[in-house]
Design a protein that fits this description.
Elements lengths: L1 H29 L4 H4 L6 H10 L6 H14 L13 H35 L4 H15 L2 H19 L19 H34 L2 H8 L4 H38 L5 H11 L2 H29 L7
Length: 321
């Protein structure tokens, strides 16, 4: 297993280099990073030229990529081209906010999805199965922005009609409140609910299908023939192998969430890394956009590595060494 982990990490290095290079090329070709500064009459042309020289914007894209990689390691993602401030503090602040939302929503979605998926598979074609399937399909069908707006309108309507504030519909939290305070949880509840509903639909359907695939395999019939209880067979022989597709989906879903959180954070004006990325992309801040893309790429690679390691634990038939 250790050999596999080391080999997998080594494979991830060229993937990360290639993905960041392509991202850098596409972002660079999307527009002039100093176009916003050129449109400001208060900034002298000499100053803009100095900025271009200092940030190597007058060089070719491959050369600029090399300098950007150097800044990535020596200056912690470098400085913003527009504000000239270090990017690292903004990334750590916004990523912390986004991580809190994603961790809570994914935990709830995975737990609920697994439980509902198991019960649906055990009670196949029952009333419970039809109801859970209908809710899952509804979750699949709802776009993220539409669900976020619907929840926002619902709780605004509750506040206006009954003057009862259950959850806040925008912003992050009031000044002076802690990371896990009630005020903070009220602010992030709707973003968490939005991401949880979308992810729950995926996990419950995959868990149900995976359980139905495993539940009729020969070794499960043998376990029942030995006189083991249905609950023991389900939890000991079926559940563990049925989790393998869920591990894959959960690892891949992290990348999807980092994309979907851009929409969610924009709707709820949440100071997360997705909202930060959208603002910097609109302003053409090349280095800030690349910082987001690098962080996203690293997170996706790490979670795929975790998924590969969990395969070996869940299924002893898988051999890596």
């Amino acid at each position: 297993m250790l050999t596999f982990i080391v080999r997998r990490i080594l494979y991830s290095i060229p993937v990360l280099i290639f993905s960041t290079f392509l991202s850098f090329v596409f972002v660079s070709l999307a527009g002039n990073p100093v176009a916003l500064l050129n449109g400001n009459p208060r900034i002298p042309k000499n100053t803009i030229h100095l900025i271009e020289v200092q940030n190597h914007l007058n060089r070719s894209i491959p050369v600029r990529y090399v300098f950007w990689v150097r800044d990535l390691f020596t200056h912690k993602l470098g400085n913003s081209l527009l504000t000239f401030q270090p990017i690292w503090p903004d990334i750590t602040r916004t990523l912390g906010h986004t991580a809190q939302v994603i961790i809570i929503s994914e935990t709830l979605a995975i737990v609920l999805g697994i439980v509902i998926g198991i019960l649906s598979a055990i009670r196949q074609y029952s009333v419970f199965d039809y109801i859970s399937t209908s809710f899952s399909f509804l979750g699949f069908a709802m776009p993220t922005f539409w669900l976020a707006l619907l929840l926002q309108i619902l709780f605004v309507d509750i506040y206006l009609k009954w003057n009862v504030r259950i959850f806040y519909t925008s912003g992050l939290n009031s000044p002076g409140q802690g990371t896990w305070s009630l005020d903070r949880l009220q602010h992030i509840a709707l973003p968490v609910m939005t991401l949880c509903i979308i992810s729950f639909a995926v996990y419950s359907r995959y868990m149900r299908a995976s359980m139905l695939d495993v539940i009729n395999i020969d070794y499960v019939r043998t376990a029942r023939a030995k006189g083991l209880s249905d609950w023991h067979v389900i939890m000991r022989h079926v559940f563990r192998n049925a989790l393998i597709p869920i591990v894959t989906v959960a690892a891949l879903n992290i990348g999807g969430l980092l994309g979907g959180v851009i929409i969610t954070e924009t709707v709820f004006s949440l100071d997360g890394i997705g909202f930060y990325f959208l603002q910097k992309l609109q302003n053409g801040d090349l280095y800030a956009v690349m910082a987001y893309l690098v962080v996203t790429a690293v997170i996706i690679i790490v979670f795929n590595l975790i998924a590969d390691i969990l395969y070996g634990y869940l299924d002893p038939r898988i051999r890596y060494d």
